[in-house]
Specification:
The protein is built from six helices and seven strands, in the order E-H-E-E-E-H-E-E-H-E-H-H-H. It is α/β, with parallel strands linked by helices. The protein has a single domain, classed as Peptidyl-tRNA hydrolase (Rossmann fold, 3-Layer(aba) Sandwich), CATH 3.40.50. A seven-stranded mixed β-sheet has the order 2-3-4-1-5-7-6, sandwiched between helices. A hairpin with a 2-residue loop joins strand 3 and strand 4. Helix 1 packs across helix 5. The longest helix has 20 residues. The model has no long low-confidence stretch (mean pLDDT about 95).
C-alpha cells in the first residue's frame, strides 16, 4: 500500500494563546493533543511558524496532525500553508472543533455540513470545499440565557463538567482511532456517544 496516497490529516481548531487554555473553544485541539500523547507523538513547529505538526503510521494510514498557531478565526491560513507542500487530492481531512449547537458531551462526524456560525470552520471553508472534508463536532452546550455565545465558548468548562470533559476527550481519541480504520463505524460510534452518569 502506498501510504502517500492514503494520508489522513487531523486538524484541531483552537486559540493557541495561553489565556484560552482549557476553554470550550479549544476542545478540538485538546483532543488532538491527547491523541498524540496516547500515540507517543511529539509536535514540531513548521518552518513558517504557522502550525504545529506531528505524523505517524497508525492503523495502516499515514496520519498527520496539525494545530494552527494562529487565532481560531484564521485557521484556514495554517491549512493553506500546509497544502502548499502536500497533495490536497490524496489527503482525507478531519477537523475537530467545538459546537454549541450540540448538547454538552455529544459527538457528531459530518461531511459537507454548514459552518454553523463557527469562525474557525468559516476560515477552513475558505481553503477546503465543505463537501471535501469531515468534521468531528464536539458538543460544548448552549450558553445560558443572557450569555453571549462568543463569550461562552471562550470560557472554561464549569467545575461540574470537568470530569465529563475528560471522558469526552478520551472517547473522542478512541473515535479518531476508529476513523482511521473504518469511517462509517466512527460516524456511528460518535453519534451514539452519551453522557451515562447523569445525576
Amino acid at each position: 500500500m502506498n501510504l502517500e496516497s492514503n494520508k489522513t490529516l487531523f486538524v484541531g481548531l483552537w486559540n493557541p494563546q495561553d489565556k484560552y487554555s482549557k476553554t470550550r473553544h479549544n476542545i478540538g485541539a485538546d483532543i488532538l493533543i491527547r491523541f498524540c500523547k496516547k500515540n507517543n507523538l511529539e509536535f514540531k513547529l513548521d518552518k513558517n511558524s504557522i502550525y504545529n505538526f506531528s505524523s505517524a503510521e497508525i492503523n495502516g494510514s499515514n496520519v498527520e496532525i496539525i494545530l494552527p498557531m494562529v487565532s481560531m478565526n484564521n485557521s484556514g491560513d495554517a491549512l493553506k500553508s500546509y497544502f502548499k507542500h502536500n497533495n490536497k487530492e490524496s489527503t482525507e481531512v478531519l477537523v475537530v472543533h467545538d459546537d454549541i449547537d450540540l448538547a454538552f458531551g455529544r459527538l457528531r462526524i459530518k461531511k459537507g455540513s454548514s459552518d454553523g456560525g463557527h469562525n474557525g470552520i468559516k476560515s477552513t471553508n475558505g481553503v477546503l470545499n465543505p463537501g471535501d472534508y469531515y468534521k468531528l463536532k464536539v458538543g460544548v452546550g448552549r450558553p445560558p440565557q443572557g450569555i453571549d455565545p462568543a463569550d461562552f465558548v471562550l470560557s472554561k468548562f464549569y467545575n461540574e463538567e470537568r470530569e465529563e470533559v475528560e471522558f469526552l476527550i478520551e472517547d473522542s481519541v478512541d473515535i479518531l482511532n476508529t476513523f482511521l480504520k473504518d469511517k462509517e463505524l466512527a460516524i456511528k460510534e460518535a453519534s451514539e456517544r452519551r453522557i451515562i452518569d447523569v445525576i
